[in-house]
Amino acid sequence: MPEPPAPALPDGHRWLDENIVIAEDGTSACGRCRHRLADPQANYKLGTHVVETPLSATDRVWRDPALYVDETSLVFREFVCPGCGCRLETEVSLRELPPVHDKQLALTWR
Questions:
Q1: pLDDT, tens digit, for every residue of 65-89?
Q2: Cα–Cα distance between 49 and 17 in angstroms, integer?
């Protein structure tokens, strides 16, 4: 069942992607429940609940990872809002690396 549409944004907020909003002060929040995730310029993923699964257990492997890296070190990460449980983002990464800080903004609007 698809998720319900996201609510309208309060004044001064902008969408970072389909699940994350940025307030005028730069803080990030869940786009569904507005649970605050991170301070400005911080990686919003660090404010989420992380579900980490070995890549081999996900049934999402199309090519054998052992062709490229030690397959036991790859994980599938799901970043979930601690407020409402909405899955905000996913990534495949080496287990020992921190979450990728892939969405960063230079805040200039007013």
A1: 777 776 668 889 999 999 999 999 9
A2: 18
Contact 35/20 with Cβ under 8 angstroms?
no
- Tokens representing 40 are 């400005």
Percent of the chain at pLDDT > 90 equals 45
CA gap 78, 45 in Å, rounded:
10
- Residue 73's Cβ-count burial label (10 Å; 0-12, 13-18, 19+) is middle
HSE (side-chain half, CA atoms, 13 Å) at 62: 0
Please give the helix or strand (H or E) that residue 28 lies within, else none: strand 28-30
- 35-45 burial string, b = 16+ CB within 10 Å, else e? bebbeeeebbb
Euclidean distance between CA atoms 32 and 85, whole angstroms: 10
